[in-house]
Amino acid sequence: MNPPGSLAGLDPNLDAHLSTQILAPSVHSDNPQERIQARRLRIAARLEARRREALGEYLDGKKESEEDQSKSYKQKEESRLKLAKLLLCGTELVTNIQVAIDIREIHRRVEEEEIKRQRIEKLENEVKTSQDKFDEITSKWEEGKQKRIPQELWEMLNTQQLHCAGLLEDKNKLISELQQELKTKDDQYVKDLKKQSDDICLLLERMEEQVKNVMKTFREELYNIEKAFEVERQELLASNKKKWERALQAHNAKELEYLTNHMKKVEDYEKQLNRQRIWDCEEYNTIKIKLEQDVQILEQQLQQRKAIYQLNQEKLEYNLQVLKKRDEESTVIKSQQKRKINRLHDILNNLRSKYAKQIKQFQEENQSLTLDYKRLVLQFKELQKAMRHFALIDDEKFREIWLMNEEEAKDLIARAFDVDRIIHTHHLGLPWTAPDFWFLKNVGPISQQPQKSATQIVEEMLMHTEEEEAEEAASEPESYLDLPKQISEKTTKKILMLLCDESGFLIESKLLSLLLPLEQNECYLLRLDAIFSALGIESEDDLYKLVNFFLKYRAHRLSSSLQIKSCSQASMEKASMEETSMGSELELAEQTEMEGAKEESLVEGEKEEEEETPPSPWDIHPNDVLKILEAFVMGLKKPRDSRAPPRVQKNMRNNSKDSEYWQALATVIPSSKQNLWDALYTALEKYHIVLTQRAKLLLENSSLEQQNTELQALLQQYLNSKINSELQVPPTQVLRVPTK
Amino acid sequence: MQDTVTTSALLDPSHSSVSTQDKSSTGGHTSSTGPQPSKPSITPVSAKSRNPHPGANFHRMRRIIAEDPEWSLAIVPLLTELCIQHIIKNFQNNPILKQMLPEHQQKVLNHLSPDLPLAVTANLIDNENYWLRCCMQRWPVCHVAHHGGSWKRMFFERHLENLLKHFIPGTTDPAVILDLLPLCRNYVRRVHVDQFLPPVQLPAQLRPGDQSDSGSEGEMEEPTVDHYQLGDLVAGLSHLEELDLVYDVKDCGMNFEWNLFLFTYRDCHSLAAAIKACHTLKIFKLTRSKVDDDKARIIIRSLLDHPVLEELDLSHNLIGDRGARGAAKLLSHSRLRVLNLANNQVRAPGAQSLAHALAHNTNLISLNLRLNCIEDEGGQALAHALQTNKCLTTLHLGGNELSEPTATLLSQVLAINTTLTSINLSCNHIGLDGGKQLLEGMSDNKTLLEFDLRLSDVAQESEYLIGQALHANREAARQRALNPSHFMSTITANGPENSVG
């Protein structure tokens, strides 16, 4: 029914049907309908144009945003708008007819209603009048019944008939009128029908027109859109082609470049290859030559080897032969040897028997010899006794002589020292210090201090402490104080005590039981004796070595373990506190010794203290004692073996220092001092001369003074005279009085 | 083996003879060598009989041609072809279709005659092509779009329509239609009949000679004018969705009689019962059938609380205010979406009742009251209703004697309402002022797409401006439809331009 519907329809027949009728309406057409159609279309187009103008702004606004859109899009949009307008106008055009018919119908209805109303009115009027007339007639019928006269009745009947006829006529008239109306209505109906058919025709025409139009415009727009697309496509194609060409050109250029590069590279590589090939060839040749040479050498060597091999083979064969022969020979020798062994066995047996005989003989000899030896020993002992006696006597003599001489020398030296002192103090005015030489103090013959045995020293030591306790004279100390050079007596003692306490295992158990009742010191002594004998310590040196060893070990340990020092010191203090209980007596002894030994030289005391403090024997842990002892014994073993022989010479007098001693005594006043004395002597002589001169001058001076006093007295005399006051210028004023 | 044998035979017969001789002399002890010498002569025959697909074995075919150049496969029709021909020929007696391969089915369907009895084809053939041929054969103009794009459906619907059109109660055998029913029940969705023939009057006309006029007329008319009763048919069609009926007679020519155009009470009752029973009906149209208030009410009563009915078209009838009131009641008791009461006799009270129903309705989207006479009172009532209604999109009030007051109210509605897309006020007496007011109302509206004001005494200027506003709205709607996400921005962008226009 509606064009879009029919267009949308897929019916091919209908489409074909419509397409045949496509013809644009023209203003100059013969058909008036078509002319109207054309005009209407024109008006619609104008309206559309005006509308579009009015909407221009709106569309412009849209277009601005769509400018970036493609041409085809614009075309599409344009076409769409145009088509929408066309459809709208077309449907309006088509529906216009319907609307027109509607309004005509409405008008008709209104008219119809009016006419109907009039008709009904008329009918009603008619009904009324006719009713009146009918009533009149019916009333007349009543009247007529009363009439007896036929004429009257006839008249009346006639009139009634007339009335009825009138009534009928009216009715008929009305009917005819209505029929007339009906007829006109029929005519009208027919007309309407015609008109409606016309309208329908028009409607159809318009619809067809619309369809044609729409199709045409759709085609056109489609064509336009296609054209736009085509154009766009062409443009796109052109641009793409350009791009493609550009890309292709670029690609070609690149390809060319690559090709040239490639060619260059190929050439390069070819050159390189050639070079490489040549080089390879050369190398190959050299290698080949070298290898061939090698091969030759190797072949030569092979030949040599082969020769050597054959030679060796021959040699070995020869050797084999030789060895076989030797084997044979050795078997022969073996048998010979066996025979020899048997022979030697016989000899051995003979010799054994001989040996036994000899032993017997020698035993006898030995017995005789031992007897001889015993006799000789007795003789020797006697001789020794005599010798010792003489030695003592010699010593005594020697000593006496020595002492005598020494006394003489010392007197001389004392005189010399006195003179020197006088010279120094009186003549030179210098303080004199008595020269302190070792030999000055020496009394008796110089000798190595007799080597005391260790036990002796210990005894001395112990005794010494006791002596000090008893505050006996300090003459003795010097004898042993000079001996321990670095080690104080106390440390030694302490070390020994420690040793004694720790190495009880060295003492025999019997001895221990014996020691129990003894005094402490003695007990110690005996114990130490036993220990020393066990350790092999015999001399004083050994003892000091031991003590030194202890101290060194101690020092070594200290240096090795400095980090423990602080704590060890702290522990030392504690240990000392602990050990005071053990060695409290010793400490007390020490203290008393300190008090009593004030007479001793300060230097020594200081030394003692200095030495005592750093290597304190208390630092040695009792547990270490055994280790130290072990080490000491190991160290001591070697020297001890060689110590035995010189023991014989022990008592031999050492003369080496005697001359020196006497020389020293002779040159107690050094030559420089003698020179000084000479110089002093000459200077004193000179001084004596000067003094004598001066004595003379003093005498002169005293005489001159006498003269002077005399003169002064004279002068005074003159001055006190009266003349002086009479003088205009007194001489006192001229002379400054020297009295002032 | 065969190839070598044959080629060697062709090239060098002497050698082949030797070989065959050899084989024959030695032959017999193996089965394969035995038949070989004689095979070349046999193969053509066996190929002819055995090979339905010559393309399948290309080598064999080539070899055969080489041997017998005169022979051609085209001469001999394929067995399948023959079978198909046979099936086509005897399809009426022995319809074989489903058992065949698809390509063969296609072939059969392409060659089936469209004149086959429906009893055979109706439930067997679903192919559209066949039904297309059937339709094209019967009717020169076919609008398949009106039948849901299905040719089969179209065929059955139009077939049924033809039968109904030419059914004459009393003379035609009702079995004609009832026989068709089981065949078409699954395919017919729409029944469109624009003519119901009354019973033949001839016997009635013949009879007056025998019987008295007055008595016969009084008795005879009532049963005779009734038309075909749709009850059975409607009940039988399980997929019926649309019923489009016109109780009319076409091409009566000089036989015109008023009796021909009667929609009797019996018709009405039976129709009402039929549509009440049909729960699949969506569209019901009863036009140009002289339905007056009472009949309309009977039909509408039957439609109350119908589960699926969406469209009711009672245009070109004689429905007055009472019928309109009934329709208003129907509005609030159904899911009606489209109501068409065009060209009836609804006046102000009817329109008011409709407006009352419309005020709170949420289903109706289209209301057509063209060519009624609701006048300003009714128009105002409808306008008031539209102020609260949020559903109606299309309203046709053409030719209703409306004037300025209605236009004033409608302009207010236009400013508020956002659902209306189409209003038709043509053929009214809106007047110049009314037009201006409507223009004002239009200036605030963004949704209206169509507004017909032709022949309603509106100034051309305002009509033109309204047209521009509508155009702007249409553009906006198009934009919205194209890209729903941006419609807000487009509206704001178009806002100032619209106000300027």
From TrEMBL, chain A:
Recorded coiled-coil stretches: 103-140, 168-210, 281-308, 334-379, 694-724
Keywords from the UniProt entry: Cell projection, Cilium, Coiled coil, Flagellum
Residue ranges of every copy of the Dynein regulatory complex protein 1/2 N-terminal domain listed in the record: 100-200
Entry keyword Coiled coil: yes
Domain of life: Eukaryota
GO cellular component, one term: axonemal dynein complex
PANTHER family: DYNEIN REGULATORY COMPLEX PROTEIN 1 (PTHR21625:SF1), NYD-SP28 PROTEIN (PTHR21625)
Protein name per its UniProtKB record: Dynein regulatory complex protein 1
GN (gene name): DRC1
UniProtKB/TrEMBL annotation, chain B:
Protein name: Dynein regulatory complex subunit 5
GO cellular component: sperm flagellum
Biased composition (Polar residues): 1-23, 35-49
Described purpose of this protein according to its UniProt entry: Component of the nexin-dynein regulatory complex (N-DRC) a key regulator of ciliary/flagellar motility which maintains the alignment and integrity of the distal axoneme and regulates microtubule sliding in motile axonemes. May play a role in the assembly of N-DRC. May be required for sperm motility.
Entry keyword annotation includes Cytoplasm: yes
Keywords: Cell projection, Cilium, Cytoplasm, Cytoskeleton, Flagellum, Leucine-rich repeat, Repeat
A single GO BP: flagellated sperm motility
Family: Belongs to the DRC5 family.
UniProt superkingdom: Eukaryota
Entry keyword annotation includes Cytoplasm: yes
Organism: Papio anubis (Olive baboon)
Quaternary structure, from the entry: Component of the nexin-dynein regulatory complex (N-DRC). Interacts with DRC1. Interacts with FBXL13/DRC6, DRC3 and DRC7.
